[in-house]
Amino acid sequence: MYLFGFYVHIKKISVSWKIYQKTFFIKERFKKKTLSPLKLGYKLKYLLSLKEKFKEDMKEDELLSLPGIGKYSLELFLVFQKRDWKRFYVDCLTEKIMRECYGVKKDFEKSAKKLWGNFHGLVLFYLQRFFEKK
Length: 134
Hints:
Layout: H1 13-23, H2 32-35, H3 43-53, H4 60-64, H5 71-80, H6 92-102, H7 108-116, H8 120-133
Helix pairs in contact: 7-8
């Protein structure tokens, strides 16, 4: 059973990549001895808790009730794992892209929906990959 790609607000992509390499987000591989060497700090308990409590058919409100999961993590899960391209998440890179490339100062999601319709989550995904490389 695959454990979804909640990043639990792990800011560094390199840390997320290390978690992926160790576990491939497969539930059975989320063990303290596997994740401890990654020095995740307080996030380790959230990941281990997530392993125990996550079920594939959980509704959004149930997911939000899990420790360490907020709106941002939920949106990431819905975009990256469920491929729900109508979803949109705002982080510092999203804000930078919207401000500098599209002149948007506020209401980022509303503006993105206006620009790209129901695929604004997919467009954001590609824009972030492009700008991360720069």
